[in-house]
Predict the 3D structure of the following.
Amino acid sequence: ETGVTQSPTHLIKTRGQQVTLRCSSQSGHNTVSWYQQALGQGPQFIFQYYREEENGRGNFPPRFSGLQFPNYSSELNVNALELDDSALYLCASSLGGGQRSPLHFGNGTRLTVT
Amino acid sequence: GENVEQHPSTLSVQEGDSAVIKCTYSDSASNYFPWYKQELGKGPQLIIDIRSNVGEKKDQRIAVTLNKTAKHFSLHITETQPEDSAVYFCAASHLGAQKLVFGQGTRLTINP
């Protein structure tokens, strides 16, 4: 069974730039959720994708957007980067949408905005 | 919306002793409560979860208790070992919801 994989592991960007983060879900899982984890804090929900459509969104501005592909992998895009976007971005996969099965997290992408 | 408070923020115990981490939640509709362990440089790993139709669940040295009336739940780790050192997060949700709401985390240190 292949776990959740995320790429890249680390990324440094400049304020105002755009970034794309990628996630491959665990085999057999059809739902992907993205979380932002600031240093010393718990993860905060960005959005969830189920069957290639956004299935719920947290309190994040529209410059945070995503995609889910037919193979259930996913991308997180952030436009017009701000310094406060520096964080660990976590992808989690599950089965069936909502919280019907436990979330399994990847190891994250550490984004630094300078 | 849901709010989850977690205490303590740091906890240091002697190897072999027990550790207890407590969380409270605000939304009475929440019915799913997972606990995650996060080691340095890694993502959170699910260690145990409980649904609101049971009051306690145990898996070897780890147990979780839930008090729905008081809206709090706790993680108990017995016979602690150095490899238990990590940051632990509680979370709450209901099964139809898209998001987990996490607590602020507890940094657990096991002293040999």
In short: DSSP finds no helices and eleven strands in chain A. Chain A has a mean pLDDT of 94. The interface with chain B takes residues 4, 33, 40-45, 47-48, 55-56, 58, 90, 92, 97-100, 102-108 of chain A (CB under 8 Å). The longest strand of chain A covers residues 87-94.
